[in-house]
Design brief:
The chain has 704 residues and is of the alpha/beta class. The structure holds ligand C2E and magnesium ion (2 copies).
Length: 704
């Protein structure tokens, strides 16, 4: 036995009404290695036998006896059974041959013929049939696939410069078959002017072989004059030397996905911009005005963090529904993502109407949301802008509404604000500040000032807190004016890293005249405690400056512990393991709970200066400070009081045995050269300590 079975002989049906000729042909076929599955002498007999035996090919005499001739029989066999037919003819008239042609024969043979001719005709016919079948199958597959995907197809012959667009390609844009020609302009001429260059560039890059395939998302004009979003993909065919001669692909309508938010099904930014553009145009025509409102649902991030994204999504969906119920049918409610909704309010000719709309929204959104069995109360901030003739672009209006919303947020819980031009100028100032800040670090405009920390019992200097300053040309800027912006523009981490390095470098040089070592406290923002590079960074800085880690303390705020407590816990433990100390800054102002304090490796509590400032003024504060001191002592922590401004505060803290303190009573934060001077001479506050004299806090401003 061989492993490969010999090819099966091709099976042929012979239709010939002259018996002698039929026998002759059958003999030849057998000699040529074919199998004769039968012979027929009339049309109906031929159809019946073909049906039963399903031959690979039929040899068909054109002129047959009876009603049905060979042409007719061949048409039925080919059409019904898909079997190829070769016509045999001795002397057919023109008309008969014409009819035969219509049945798409796979060959003609003029009788008599030689065996060799018969062989080649049969082989060619079988080959052509196989090829055609394959092609048909793949075409069918192709059209099935594309019908399923609902795509339009295009096929661009780069030599003839003609493009075939499938009927679906045209109907997608609302055109009938003949309404679109075959030139590239029929396509590119309809692409949105803002998108066209990009699409042409992408095609060119693929044709030049720079990309594996062509792909672009763009807007294209439909028959009604509106733009639809499509995703277009294509692949080039190349000749031997890589030159593209053809590129073909598909076009999918993605308008819905592109312009609606998948979670709420509301229009997204793209569609909203389009609507605002229309509204602006109408406004210019009929002098009516409209409003834009930005609504931020404040609680979404917290909900996502604590109850999970499913609940947060549920909250958003419900909020979306409520917002829609608050506005009229002509208005547009868009969902820009996460917790931002933006509304186009058609009837808002003045601030009063806008304010009414805002308070309605506010009322509806402040009722509890019931999501997944939980009641959630959301804080909403709303910013509104009323369209004026100054607005030229939808983007500007939306931006103004956002500025007003930010202002509302600054005003505390659940407020709304209506935009006025002053807000724009402060927003512009903020933008300028952002870009100045980005440059400030590179151009060395930041400084570190150092505020002395003393032992309250003795007045002895124990260390400094490093506080950042920004020398912005002539003006000295304080953290409250720029830290929040630095945080939102991502420069806070690099800025703090610089402060850390700079203050450690300074500290490594500074000693008291008696040689006692001083410590340095550096503030790090919550984001720094979740930065995976922090430990390596600390290690680098200590190594580079040679500072003993015991002389470095890091200040952390309560909010940092809340943010991502697992990750922060690990970082703090690593910091402790390096022998660096940890201070809890502004203690008492956050949401600190005792469980936090117990759990995290904190060495000291810094009593916030708001408490210290009220000492002696408010009985309640005295009790709070007492409680904090007791708490710290019970947890074996040191206590540092911030913001000591007068001797009464000092005495009260001393009486509580609070260990350390800082404040204007001793000194403001000072530039490094002033620290040099401080360390060289006797400490100015010491004499007052020793004599117990009352000292007014110095009013001199911090020197640059
Ligand atoms: P903080 O860490 O609580 O720093 C103490 C602040 O209180 C400093 O303000 C200091 O100058 C001020 N202060 C000290 N004594 C008195 C006083 O007797 N009376 C009054 N009214 N204020 C006093 P500063 O320098 O404006 O810093 C404010 C805050 O900025 C700091 O509060 C700290 O949270 C933050 N900060 C400063 N530098 C950095 C830094 O490099 N990174 C981070 N994350 N925050 C920093
Ligand atoms: Mg601090
Ligand atoms: Mg503080």
């Amino acid at each position: 036995m061989t492993d490969t079975a010999p090819a099966k002989p091709r099976r042929i049906l012979v239709v010939e009404d002259e018996t002698i000729v039929s026998m002759d042909i059958q003999n030849s076929l057998r000699l040529l290695g074919y199998e004769v599955v039968g012979a027929a002498t009339s049309g109906p007999e031929a159809i019946g036998k073909a049906d039963r035996t399903m031959p690979d090919l039929v040899l068909m005499d054109i002129i047959l006896k009876g009603e049905m001739d060979g042409v007719e029989a061949a048409r039925t066999i080919h059409a019904r059974l898909g079997i190829p037919v070769i016509f045999l003819t001795a002397c057919a008239d023109e008309k008969t041959l014409e009819r035969a042609k219509v049945t798409e024969p796979f060959g003609y043979m003029i009788k008599p013929f030689e065996e060799r001719e018969l062989h080649s005709h049969i082989e060619i016919a079988l080959y052509r049939h196989r090829m055609e079948k394959k092609l048909r199958e793949s075409e069918e597959r192709y059209s099935l696939a594309t019908q399923g995907a609902n795509d339009g197809l295009w096929d661009w012959n780069l030599r003839s410069k003609e493009i075939y667009f499938s009927p679906r390609w045209k109907s997608m844009l609302g055109y009938r078959d003949l309404e679109i020609g075959v030139s590239p302009l029929d396509w590119f001429g309809r692409i949105h002017p803002a998108d066209r260059e990009q699409v042409e560039k992408n095609v060119a890059r693929h044709l030049q072989g720079e990309t594996g395939h062509f792909e672009s998302e763009y807007r294209i004009l439909d028959a009604k004059g509106a733009y639809r979003w499509v995703l277009c993909r294509g692949l080039a065919s190349r000749d031997g030397d890589g030159k593209a001669h053809r590129i073909a692909g598909s076009q999918t309508d993605i308008t819905d996905r592109k312009v609606y938010n998948p979670l709420t099904g509301l229009p997204n930014r793209l569609l909203f911009l389009d609507r605002v553009e229309h509204a602006l145009r109408r406004t210019r025509d009929n002098a009516r005005s409209f409003g834009i409102a930005v609504v931020e649902i404040g609680e979404v991030k917290t909900v996502a963090g604590s109850l999970g994204h499913v609940v947060a999504d549920g909250l958003i969906v419900q909020a979306a529904r409520r917002i829609q119920e608050c506005v009229s049918a002509e208005d547009t409610v868009a969902h820009f993502g996460n917790d931002d909704f933006v509304l186009l309010i058609e009837e808002a000719s003045d601030g009063k109407q806008a304010a009414l709309a805002a308070s309605r929204l506010h009322r509806e959104l402040s009722r509890a949301f019931l999501v997944d069995g939980q009641s959630i109360y959301a804080t909403t901030h709303i910013g509104i802008t009323v369209c004026t003739r100054d607005h030229l672009h939808p983007d500007e209006m939306i931006r103004d509404a956002y500025v007003a919303m930010q202002r509302a947020k600054g005003g505390g819980k659940g407020r709304f604000e209506i935009f006025d031009a002053k807000m724009r100028s402060s927003a512009v100032a903020r933008l300028k500040m952002e870009s100045d800040l980005r440059r400030a670090l590179e151009s060395g405009q930041f400084r570190v000032h150092y505020q002395p920390i003393t032992e309250l019992k003795t007045g002895r200097l124990v260390g400094f807190e490093a506080l950042v300053r920004w020398q912005r040309s002539e003006e000295m800027m304080f953290p409250k004016d720029f830290l929040a912006i630095a945080e939102s523009t991502d420069i806070l981490l690099p800025l703090e890293s610089w402060v850390l390095r700079e203050s450690c470098r300074q500290m490594a040089r500074w000693r008291l005249p008696g040689g006692e070592e001083l410590t340095i406290n550096v503030n790090l923002c919550p984001g720094h405690y979740t930065d995976p590079n922090l430990i390596r960074e600390l290690d680098d800085v200590l190594r580079a400056t040679g500072l003993n880690p015991r002389r470095l303390s890091l200040e952390i705020t309560e909010s940092a512990l809340m943010e991502n407590s697992e990750a922060v816990f690990r970082t703090l433990s690593d910091i402790k393991a390096m022998n660096i100390r940890l201070h809890m800054d502004d203690f008492g102002t956050g949401y600190s709970s005792l469980s936090y304090l117990n759990r995290f490796p904190i060495d000291s509590l810094k009593i916030d200066r708001s408490f210290v400032g009220n000492l002696g003024l408010c009985e309640e504060t005295w009790k709070i400070v007492q409680a904090i001191v007791n708490l710290g002592r019970n947890l074996d922590m040191e206590l540092i009081a911030e913001g000591i401004e007068n001797v009464m505060q000092l005495r009260m803290l001393q009486s509580l045995h609070c260990h350390f303190g800082q404040g204007y009573y001793f000194s403001k934060a000072m530039a490094p050269r002033d620290v040099d001077a401080l360390l060289a001479g006797p400490l100015p506050w010491m004499v007052l300590f020793e004599t117990g004299a009352v000292r007014a806090f110095p009013r001199a401003a911090e020197a640059g």
